[in-house]
Amino acid sequence: MKLYRTLVCFILSLWFWAPAKAQKSYALDSPNSRLSVVISVDDSVRFSLYKDGAEIVSPSKIGLTLQEGEQLFVGTKVAKTIRTSVNTSIPTLCYRKDTVTDRYNELILKFRGNYSVIFRMYDDGMAYRFGLDREGETIIEQETAAYRFPKDYKTYTAYVNNADKKLENQFYASFENTYTTKTLTELDPNRLKMLPLLIDLEKNGKLCITESDLEDYPGMMLNNDPDRPVLEAIHARYPSRCEVDTKKRLYIYVREREEYIARTSALRLFPWRAFIVVDRDEELADNDMVYRLASPCRIEDPSWIKPGKVAWDWWSNWNLYGVDFRAGVNNDTYKYFIDFAAKYGLEYIILDAGWSVYGAGDLMQVVPEIDLEELVAYGNSKNVGLILWAGCNAFEKDMEKAVRHFAEMGIKGFKIDYMNRDDQWMVDFLYRAAKTCADHHMVVDFHGVYKPTGLNRTYPNVLNFEGVWGMEQMKWSSPSSDMVTYDVTIPFIRMLAGPMDYTPGAMRNAGKSNYRPVNSEPMSQGTRCRQLAMYVVFDAPLNMLSDSPSNYLQEKECTEFIADVPTVWDETKILQGKVAEYIVTARKKDSEWYLGAMTDWDARELEVDLSFVGKGDFEIEYFTDGINADRAARDYKKVIAPLPSDREITLKMAPGGGFAARIYPIK
User: Fold this and answer.
1) Which of 281, 472, 539, 600 is catalytic?
2) 106 catalytic per annotation
3) Could you tell me if 591 and 618 are in contact, meaning their C-beta atoms sit under 8 angstroms apart?
4) Does pTM surpass 0.70?
5) Residue 474: closest CA among 511, 512, 525, 520
6) Catalytic one among 213, 417, 445, 630?
7) Is 176 noted as a catalytic residue in this protein?
8) Tens digit of pLDDT for each residue in 265-313?
């Protein structure tokens, strides 16, 4: 009997250790060999990420659970591996540079059961995605992603701006919030965390987690474990019952959800999960990972797409002065906006909320004070296009009919607002809206929306996205709010995902002690030069001039500079920068370079090398904070001078300050 028990124990021990012995590992290096991923396959799939031999992501389990609890990547074997290397370039549309380098090594692990996982290694990071190769439809009950880290690293994290006690209810949010700087375990486990999320790897640089090619699938959020350094993926379940608010007819609330996150094709590739890894902070602000990973352009001939600048009505509350009509939502006001846009060569004006009947939820019901056809004709006579604001509910109501109607009228695009979700239904809404508008040659600005995930590459008529705590917050935020620090944080985190509808351009400027919220005559935090610099630092192919035309007309020098700054670029260089402290950005369009710099609440002096502009004689026109800008934030000085032959200049910035310049060859 004793011998039998010994034999049984021996056999059971062999069975217990069998999975460990059966474990198989696959390694993939970046082209420069500094980054590597090791994928282990046994009873599950895990990956570990290394930089210069140091582990920066510990073994992290990933997988999918399908209908009826079928768990992919659990207890199955790899049937085939495919390795490829790619070194090419992607011509861009409406982007921060005209060409993106796409150089990577790829490993595809094909599993028995007709599914796969794909890993790509770039010199600046790693990405993975799942694939299914089956027939018909499938249900995704959940996605597993438990990202483990070797240390309790500091993070820069934006919680969703909905602090409801139930995580389920936090999936309804506008995706606007400042950053919390806490370690992985110090984060609040009762708050969902938005992507991108930045992790400070100390001596190993920084790592940013985000996603790309999000289509027909819910967006990923993360949550932490207060006991160990782990971030776990969490997705909104599919909405089964929705209601529209009865007062404004703007919001689509989810009242009930299914028990799954997606119903989708069983023959598909899933979104990329991206891990951007950099040595220096500057590399974050000019990273192309999301654009590279996105699906290519689906518009056969995109030559009609016109990026540019917009004179915007809402931030200034339609507040004009020195006119002989009552300013507001009416044709006289919008003709004034058109005249202003034409004077400074702006491509568009926008008619924000108010042009259609309040509470109707119907874009076909235009208020009697507005004659759209007359405004379109007037705009055409001045070479200024019109863009209409639309709530998500009204736009969804009869999308094809509305888009066709307004396109035929001559409207150039839509600013679509109040999505406030990233479940599968809402992600699909964005793709349908983008395609429908593209079919009718209309541009799109998505406001009230989650972070970009590459849709602007797939449908480049989508020129901008909010998902940012933009300058509109200054209309109501308390004096304790810190927009200045946020401004020098988002270029390294949120902007990594794609362009930002931040809406800069304030002509009323305030230092830390002078700012206060004023709805009808709002002000910015920080100096005038900071506002000018934003047009260079922030990515925005469709960029707003947010203040009142009346204010701009009083500020000719600043307005001319803003109006002249391009919105798409041939080349971008981040010259200096540190997350949450400062940034210096240079961008080129044709033969001219533009320079933009911003600092936090610390005054800063930076030496900048401009040798990249090349040989020849150049002139620099620059705006620098005035000597009293720390007291009167609107104080600035404009200088035009030859660019020094040694190409070295000194940037001096006041607290909350900035610097903006144009560098052009002398003919």
Assistant:
1) 472
2) no
3) no
4) yes
5) 525
6) 417
7) no
8) 999 999 999 999 999 999 999 999 999 999 999 999 999 999 999 999 9
